[in-house]
Design brief:
376 residues, alpha+beta, Aminopeptidase, Cathepsin B, Chain A, seven-stranded mixed beta sheet, 12 helices, elongated, GNAT_dom, acyltransferase, Bact_Acetyltransf, GNAT family N-acetyltransferase/peptidase C39 family protein
Length: 376
């Protein structure tokens, strides 16, 4: 039987108690150490928080995959994967991983993580082809004292529904231009002719910067971003839950605080003169964001990065969708070189986490922009 026939003949189903003997045999053939014992296999078959799927060829179990679904979170873990040696190279392992991902995502889980021996190059290559990326390493992890790589994949992306907003992704090119990057993504989602590049990014930053922030160059003021969008042909709704100068708690110098106040007042005056900008001082609810998306607006919102990197920095992201469980965002900050662009696109954030992330600083600043292309 050739590889194509093997691929077609393999089916998948949930493991049952009748599979226990075969599963134990597979475990013993596939692993020299760190094996799941018979009792553990039996418990996992019955576990309500597990996805235990077997691969079957001609009524014979030829492999299995086991996922542990963490209670109270949206994170799952690929606990074990084993395929009989004679089935390797048939594509069964990749198909089994796809089955596990689909079953786990159907439970509402968003991310799948796994550990794999660093020396197991074939398995590492399989996981990479399946969309996993390395995000850490465990030293002396296995019984034989070998190291393990930690890998992760997003298994649940944007639902295809009326709140989806297809948006091109753009990576910010400096540590301080998340605002321009998020705004460019939003504008480009509404205008395919818009030039999205570093020149535009820096132009918008100069137009919208607050001048000072906690460290380094200033970030972008929501009213400054609104003015930049208006100058590029968009109508803008701005929601801010405070009328005073923004980001002043991020600087210690009295002089810098004074300058921030002057910049804030300039933005207030300029937006007041722009008939294409509407500023509303009010709290931002999830329903308002959902309504914007359904009405065809592109939305960007300020978040705190504390839950992302522990730094409590203000950070602009583009909102790309919403469903019953999550908001989805494009994050323009791709982080270090090991992070893939796909991990920053349609990134799912639970509604509860989104509420916490979208309040910045001790004053719990909330602000967002909704833009639409103006008719000519």
């Amino acid at each position: 039987m050739n590889a194509t026939q093997e691929h077609q003949a393999v089916t998948f189903r949930r493991a049952s108690a009748d599979d226990l003997d075969t599963l134990e045999q597979i475990e013993n053939r596939c692993f020299d150490g760190d094996r799941l014992h018979r009792r553990s296999l039996r418990n996992w078959i019955k576990a309500p928080h597990g996805e235990f799927i077997v691969a079957v060829q001609q009524d014979k179990v030829v492999g299995y995959g086991l996922v542990w679904c963490h209670k109270g979170t949206r994170l799952a873990r690929l606990y074990s994967l084993a395929i009989l040696p004679e089935m390797r190279g048939s594509g069964t392992a990749a198909r089994l991983m796809s089955e596990l991902g689909s079953a786990t995502a159907a439970r509402g889980y968003l991310f799948m993580r796994l550990e794999v021996a660093k020396s197991n190059t074939a398995a590492v290559a399989l996981y990479r082809r399946s969309g996993y990326r390395v995000f850490g390493e465990y030293h002396d992890y296995y019984e034989d004292h070998s190291d393990a790589l930690r890998m992760q994949k997003t298994i649940r992306y944007l639902s295809i529904d009326k709140t989806q907003h297809l948006t091109p992704w753009y990576q910010q090119t400096t540590p301080f231009t998340c605002g321009p990057a998020a705004l460019m993504m939003a504008m480009a989602s509404l205008d395919e002719t818009l030039v999205v590049d570093q020149k535009q990014e820096l132009d918008i930053w100069r137009e919208a910067t607050t001048i000072f922030m906690t460290t380094g160059h200033g970030g972008c003021h929501p009213l400054g971003l609104a003015l930049a969008a208006s100058q590029r042909g968009f109508s803008v709704d701005v929601l801010i839950n405070t009328e005073g100068p923004l980001f002043v708690e991020g600087v210690r110098s009295a002089h810098k605080k004074e300058v921030l106040g002057v910049v804030h007042q300039q933005f207030v005056e300029k937006t007041g003169q722009d008939t294409h900008i509407r500023v509303v001082y009010a709290e931002i609810g999830q329903q308002r964001i959902s309504d914007w998306l359904q009405e065809g607006y592109a939305v960007i919102i300020l978040i705190s990065t504390f839950r992302l990197d522990g730094k409590k920095a203000p950070h602009w992201v583009a909102v790309t969708g919403i469903d019953e469980r999550c908001f989805y965002v494009h994050d323009p900050d791709a982080g270090d070189d090991s992070q893939l662009a796909i991990d920053n696109q349609y990134l799912p954030i639970t509604r509860e986490d989104f509420d916490k992330m979208s309040a910045f600083g001790s004053g719990r600043l909330r602000t967002a922009l909704a833009i639409k292309k103006r008719s000519r």
